[in-house]
Every structure is written in C-alpha cells, then in structure tokens.
Amino acid sequence: MTPRDFPATDPQAQPEEVPFYEGLLVGEFRVPWCSRCQTFVWRPKSHCTACYDAISDWRVLPGTGEIYSYCVVAKGDGAFASVAPYVLAWVALDEGPTVLANIADGPDLVQIGYRVRLSVPTCDDRAFRGPVFMLS
C-alpha cells in the first residue's frame, strides 16, 4: 500500500494546521514548537496547550519512531472503505510527540515496537492527507 492509497483526511485544514500538511507533501514532519516552555505542541494549534503562549516556531523532525500501539481497521468508513483493511497506529516519534497515523505496510507485517519512518507521498495533488509511515 502506498500513501496515495489513503484518501484525503481533512480537505479543509485549519490555518494553524497548514504548515504541517504542507510539510507532509514534501516528506517533512513539521511540528509546532513553543519557545517559551520549550515543548512540542501536538496537534498543531495556534497557542501552546501548556503555557498558552502563541506559537511562532515550527521544527522539522526526522519522521522516525516506533509503533507504540495499533489496530487493524477491517472495515473502513466513507472514503476509507476502499482501502480496508489498514493499520491505524500510535507512533512515538524519536524527537517529539506520539501521533496517530496510518501505516502503509500490510496488517500482517506490523507489530508493537517496530521502527517506522515517514513516507513521502507519491503525488503532489495538494490534498491534505494525514501522516503515513512505513516500516523501516
């Protein structure tokens, strides 16, 4: 399964999410960074969820981590019905937060603790897609 197989997840991204989604299009995992309390803010927001300071900085993470937990979705809903079964996982990034993402590899290959890396989309159609990781 390739990242293109996954449908757009948020065609109307909020303004504070746009840098994140634009980063995914070029293979970058961009995360808002709070300069005041020195922490990543996940999900992308306009203000830090810890100290409420305005977000003015973004960091590019390597896009590597490990599967913390996962589930196999046997029957997807809506646009995801055509790609089922697929893996939805919590990925603990090496230098940042734990994020919810799709795993491009088949359900029979995935296990907790496996290393993953961000997958670069196969097309640049400007659709807002969630993060997709592949086994390392």
Describe it.
This protein is mostly beta strands and 136 residues long. The protein has one domain: Beta Barrel (OB fold (Dihydrolipoamide Acetyltransferase, E2P)). It contains one helix and eight strands. The protein has one helix at 18-25, and strands at residues 29-34, 39-40, 57-61, 64-73, 86-93, 98-103, 115-118, 132-135. The protein has a five-stranded mixed beta barrel. It has a three-stranded antiparallel β-sheet with strand order 2-1-3. The protein is globular. The two termini are 15 Å apart.
Write the layout of secondary structure elements.
Layout: H1 18-25, E1 29-34, E2 39-40, E3 57-61, E4 64-73, E5 86-93, E6 98-103, E7 115-118, E8 132-135
Parallel strand pairs: 6-8
Antiparallel strand pairs: 1-2, 1-3, 4-5, 4-7, 5-6, 7-8
Short key terms for the protein model shown above:
single chain, 136 residues, mainly beta, OB fold (Dihydrolipoamide Acetyltransferase, E2P), 5-stranded mixed beta barrel, 3-stranded antiparallel β-sheet, 1 helix, 8 strands, 6% helix, globular
Instruction: Tell me the overall shape.
Output: globular
Q: Give the beta-strand count.
A: 8
- Widest beta sheet: strand line-up: 4-5-6-8-7
Bin the strand percentage. 25-35%
- Compute the average pLDDT: 86
**The CATH topology is what?**
OB fold (Dihydrolipoamide Acetyltransferase, E2P)
CATH architecture: Beta Barrel
- Class in CATH? Mainly Beta
Gyration radius (Cα, Å) is: 15 Å
Task: Tell me the span between the first and last alpha carbons.
Answer: 15 Å
Structural class: mainly beta
